[in-house]
Specification:
The complex is a heterodimer. Chain A is built from 17 helices and no strands. By secondary structure, chain A is an all-alpha fold. Classes of the chains: A mainly alpha, B mainly alpha. Chain A: It is found in: Cell membrane.
Chain lengths: ~375, ~350
C-alpha cells in the first residue's frame, strides 16, 4: 500500500510541471538511444576519412607490389581488383561491403578482415583486460595514499612515479621488464602468449576460445595455467603501468576534492574512522570520473596494445597490424584500423551509459 | 591606466576582485621587471617546495634537451650513421668501453652518438608539430566559433570523430599517407610532425572554439561590432587574445606527446631511416631482440633519453598548470601569504 502511494506522489510532480524536469526525469532510455545513434555518424566519418586518406597516395596493390612488377602487370592486377575505377565508386562499393559486415580481404594472405578480427581480437581483449586489472589494482590504492598524504613525501614520490609512468613509452617499460625478469633473472618468458609445449597440450581442447587463460582453466592442467599466466605477466604490467599512472592521478585529484567536502567533516565528527572515511566516503564519489575517463583510456590502451603486442610478440590485433604494415598490406591495415575505431566508439557508448547509470547528473 | 598601456578587458579593471590572493600576485608580477613576468620565470618565483623542485627539474631537463640538440655536432663523438672511423669498423654489440662510452648497436652504430643526435630529431618534430597544430587548431577554432552555422557543426563533428580515435593509429595512417612508410631526414621529420599535427588539431580547436563561443556574447565584442569593426579584426584582436589562456598547458602536454608519438612510430618501423637521421624509437625497435640475450646498453640509453625528454616537458607543463590553478597550488605558500597579510 505504502509503495503504491509513494509512486503516486512521485509521479505527480514529474508529469505536471515545467517541461525541463520532465525531460530529465524520464530521459535515461532516451539518452541511451540518442547516445547510441550518435555512434553512427562518428564511425561513418572515421571510415570516410581513413578510406580517402589511405587512397590519396595510391592503391594498395601498387603499395604492396610497387617495385616488384612491371607497369603492365601492375595495371592488370589493379584492373582485376577494381582499383582502376573512380575513387568515389570504390568508396561506395567499400561502404556497401562494410554495411554487410565485409571489411575487405587482406592482400598478402587473402584473409577476410573480419576473420582477422575474430582470430586475433580475443588476444588483444585478453591483454587489455589484464592491463586494466593491473592499472586498477595499482592506481586506485596508490592514488588514495597520495591524496591522504597530500604535499608530504609519500605524495611527492607517488606523483613522480605517476609522471614517470606517463613519460615512459610502453615499449621501453617492456624492454626494461624483459631485461630484468627474462634475460636477467630468468623468471618469466621473453615473449609470446604460450610456450610450444603448452600450445601442444592446448591443441587437445575442443572448440578453443581466443582466451588462453579460460582454455587453460577448462583444460584443468596446472602446468598449462602457470605457463599461460607467466606469459601474460610482463605484457600486462607494461600496458597497465601507463594507465595505472593516469588512474593514480585521477583518484588523487578527485579525492583531494572530496576530502575537503563538508560531509567528510560531518562524518568525522560523528566518529567515523579515518580509514572508513577514505575508503568509503571520499573514494566512492571520486571514482565516478574514472569511469568516464575509462572511455578515453580504451582508445589510448588500444594504441598502447599495438606497441605492447609488438614488444612481446603477443599475437593480437596490434601485432598483426604492425606485421601488415611492414608488408605494406594496406587493405588489412585499413580494415583493422576501422575495426578498432568501431570498438572504441562502442566502448565509449558503454562507458557513457554506465556513467549515466551511476551519476544521474550526467544526462543531457 | 595610461593610454600607452592598454589593459585587456577583464584583467586590470577589478573584475577579479573576489580572487584577492590571485590579483595580489598578478599585481606583484605586473610591477616587477619584464624578465620576471615571462611565463616560466614568473611561475618559478611563485612556486615553493616540491612544486618548485618539479619545475626546476623540468626546466633543467628541457634546457638540457635543447642545448644537446643545438650542440649535437660538438657533443657527439661520431656521426649518427657512422659504423667505423678511418676505415676501422666499430664492430656490432660492443659493450660500453673507453672508445664507446655506451657501447655499439647490432649494426655497429655508436649508441652515445645516436642518443645525442636523436635529440635533434625529437626537438625538430616537437617544434614543427606543436607550432603547426597550434596555428591550424587556433585558426579553425576561431573561424568555427565565430562563423557558426553549418561550418561549425561539420568541423565540430569532424574534430569529435578524430578526437575519439586512438591517436597512435591515426598517426600511423597519416604517416602511411605522407611518406608511404620510411623516408629521409626532413621528409621523415615532416611526416611525423604532420601525423602528430592531425592528432593534436582537434584539441586546440575544441578549446579555442568553446572560448570563442562564450566570448562572442560578451558586451565588448558586440560593442566592437556596433562601431563597425571588421570580422577579421574582431577575430584577431577581441576573440583570439582573450581565448588563449589555456593554450600553454595543451602546448606542453602536446610537446611531450609529440616525442612519444614519434618514438612509437619509429618503434613500429614507420619512422625515419637510420642513415638519414637518428631516432630513439627506431633504435629501441632494433634493441628489442638484444634484450633477449641480455644486451642492455643498446636499448637502455635511447629509452632513458625518451623518458628524460618527455619527463622534462611534462614537469614544466604540470607545474605551470598547478601554479595557475589556485586549488592545486601547494597550500603552505598560500597560508603563509595570508598570515603575513593578517599581521600586516
Amino acid at each position: 500500500m505504502t509503495t503504491g502511494l509513494d509512486t503516486e506522489v512521485e509521479n505527480t510532480p514529474a508529469s505536471t510541471p515545467a517541461p525541463r524536469r520532465k525531460r530529465s526525469g524520464g530521459g535515461l532510455g532516451r539518452y541511451i538511444l540518442v547516445r547510441f545513434l550518435l555512434i553512427i555518424p562518428t564511425v561513418f566519418i572515421l571510415m570516410t576519412v581513413v578510406f580517402f586518406l589511405m587512397r590519396i597516395t595510391g592503391d594498395p596493390i601498387t603499395a604492396a607490389l610497387g617495385g616488384r612488377l612491371t607497369p603492365d602487370q601492375l595495371a592488370q592486377r589493379r584492373a582485376e581488383a577494381g582499383y582502376d575505377r573512380p575513387l568515389i565508386v570504390q568508396y561506395f562499393d567499400y561502404l556497401g561491403g562494410v554495411l554487410q559486415g565485409d571489411f575487405g580481404m587482406s592482400y598478402t594472405d587473402r584473409t577476410p578482415v573480419t576473420e582477422i578480427l575474430t582470430t586475433y581480437g580475443g588476444a588483444t581483449f585478453e591483454l587489455v583486460v589484464y592491463a586494466v586489472v593491473v592499472a586498477l589494482v595499482a592506481g586506485v590504492p596508490l592514488g588514495m595514499i597520495a591524496a591522504r598524504t597530500r604535499d608530504r613525501w609519500p605524495d611527492a614520490v607517488l606523483r613522480v612515479v605517476a609522471i614517470l609512468g606517463y613519460a615512459t613509452p610502453v615499449f621501453f617499460v617492456g624492454l626494461l621488464l624483459k631485461l630484468v625478469f627474462s634475460a636477467g633473472l630468468g623468471w618469466l618468458p621473453v615473449a609470446g602468449r604460450i610456450s610450444t609445449r603448452g600450445e601442444l597440450t592446448m591443441g587437445s581442447i575442443l572448440n578453443p576460445s581466443p582466451f588462453y587463460l579460460l582454455d587453460a582453466l577448462r583444460l584443468g592442467r596446472v602446468d598449462v595455467l602457470i605457463d599461460v599466466a607467466s606469459h601474460a605477466v610482463l605484457p600486462a604490467i607494461a600496458l597497465g603501468v601507463l594507465t595505472g599512472g593516469i588512474f593514480l592521478r585521477l583518484v588523487r585529484t578527485n579525492m583531494i576534492g572530496t576530502l575537503e567536502m563538508q560531509y567528510i567533516d560531518s562524518a568525522r565528527s560523528r566518529g567515523v574512522s579515518e580509514s572508513r572515511l577514505t575508503t568509503r566516503h571520499a573514494l566512492r564519489p571520486a571514482l565516478i570520473p574514472i569511469v568516464t575517463v575509462m572511455g578515453m583510456q580504451i582508445a589510448m590502451m588500444l594504441g598502447g596494445a599495438v606497441l605492447t603486442e609488438t614488444t612481446f610478440e603477443w599475437n593480437g590485433l596490434g601485432y598483426m597490424l604492425a606485421e601488415y604494415m611492414k608488408a605494406r598490406d594496406y587493405v588489412a591495415v585499413q580494415g583493422i584500423v576501422m575495426m578498432l575505431a568501431v570498438i572504441v566508439a562502442l566502448s565509449n557508448f558503454v562507458v557513457d551509459v554506465v556513467a549515466a547509470l551511476i551519476d544521474p547528473r550526467v544526462r543531457y | 591606466m595610461t593610454l600607452s598601456n592598454p589593459v585587456p578587458p577583464g584583467e586590470g579593471d577589478g573584475t577579479d576582485a573576489d580572487l584577492a590572493v590571485e590579483s595580489a600576485t598578478v599585481a606583484a608580477t605586473a610591477r616587477s621587471p619584464w624578465y620576471f613576468r615571462l611565463p616560466v620565470v614568473s611561475h618559478l618565483r611563485r612556486s615553493v617546495g616540491l612544486q618548485r623542485g618539479m619545475l626546476i627539474t623540468g626546466v633543467v631537463l628541457v634546457v638540457g634537451l635543447l642545448l644537446t640538440a643545438l650542440f649535437a655536432p660538438l657533443l657527439a663523438p661520431y656521426g649518427f650513421a657512422a659504423t667505423g672511423v678511418d676505415g676501422v669498423k666499430f664492430g656490432g654489440q660492443q659493450p660500453p668501453s673507453a672508445e664507446h662510452l655506451l657501447g655499439t648497436t647490432v649494426t655497429g652504430f655508436d649508441v652515445l652518438s645516436r642518443v645525442i643526435w636523436g635529440t635533434r630529431t625529437a626537438v625538430a618534430v616537437m617544434v614543427c608539430a606543436v607550432i603547426a597544430s597550434l596555428f591550424l587548431g587556433v585558426a579553425l577554432g576561431l573561424l568555427s566559433g565565430y562563423v557558426g552555422g553549418w561550418l561549425d557543426r561539420v568541423l565540430v563533428m569532424l574534430a569529435d570523430a578524430i578526437y575519439a580515435f586512438p591517436s597512435l593509429l591515426l598517426a600511423i595512417v597519416m604517416s602511411i599517407v605522407i611518406s608511404g612508410g620510411q623516408s629521409g631526414a626532413w621528409g621523415g621529420i615532416m611526416a611525423a610532425a604532420i601525423s602528430i599535427t592531425v592528432v593534436f588539431v582537434p584539441q586546440y580547436f575544441r578549446v579555442i572554439r568553446a572560448e570563442v563561443v562564450r566570448l562572442k556574447a560578451e558586451p565588448f565584442v558586440e560593442a566592437a561590432k556596433v562601431i563597425g569593426t571588421g570580422h577579421r579584426r574582431i577575430m584577431g584582436t577581441h576573440l583570439l587574445r582573450n581565448s588563449t589562456r589555456t593554450l600553454p598547458l595543451i602546448f606542453t602536454l602536446n610537446s611531450s606527446e609529440a616525442i612519444l608519438t614519434l618514438a612509437a612510430l619509429g618503434f613500429l618501423g614507420f619512422g625515419i631511416e637510420p642513415t638519414s637521421a637518428s631516432e630513439w624509437g627506431y633504435d629501441l625497435n632494433r634493441a628489442m631482440s638484444d634484450a633477449t640475450s641480455g644486451i642492455w646498453w643498446t636499448g637502455l640509453f635511447p629509452g632513458l633519453a625518451i623518458v628524460a625528454a618527455v619527463l622534462g616537458v611534462t614537469l614544466v607543463g604540470e607545474s605551470i598548470n598547478d601554479l595557475n590553478d589556485p586549488r592545486l597550488r601547494t597550500r603552505r605558500k598560500r597560508s603563509r601569504a595570508q598570515r603575513k597579510k593578517v599581521t600586516a
